[in-house]
Design goal:
3-stranded antiparallel beta sheet, alpha+beta, 8 strands, 34% strand
Length: 169
Amino acid sequence: MGHPLLRQVASPVADFQSGELAGLVADMDDTLRALNGAGIAAPQIGVSLRVVIFEVTENPRYLHVSAVPYTVLINPTVTALDGAEEEGWEGCLSVPGMRGLVPRARRVRYQGFDLAGAPIDRTVEGFHARVVQHEVDHLDGILYPQRVRDLKDFGFEDALGERVTPMPD
């Protein structure tokens, strides 16, 4: 947190055939797995492109949530579907050791492209929707602490203790 790149709007990907794009996704994947994250955006590893990846399976950081399929999402758009919001605890690989209670749309439709340039169009809810919104925020220069409504609901994970539980689907 604090790096200027994390505050910028990322550029769209223009060339899906680029070996650089495949290398970027591989680097993002390695970082995500090494840190047991749910998702990661290209700006988090120093590249200002509109690329995110996410997945939640048997992750020790997310024991009580439904699985989220492995997805490479390029040039995404996210649309809230019904106006319903819910608050949930979030953390971030760029803000280590901290958590905040963040309101997010409960149901969203996200669209974009996979690594081969094929279209992706999904409607999701719950934790899956939260992960997508969190990662796409990174592409717009937004970190989750900016979305915390009350700073009493933001702090170090150890200090917040029992209050910090991920949202079940």
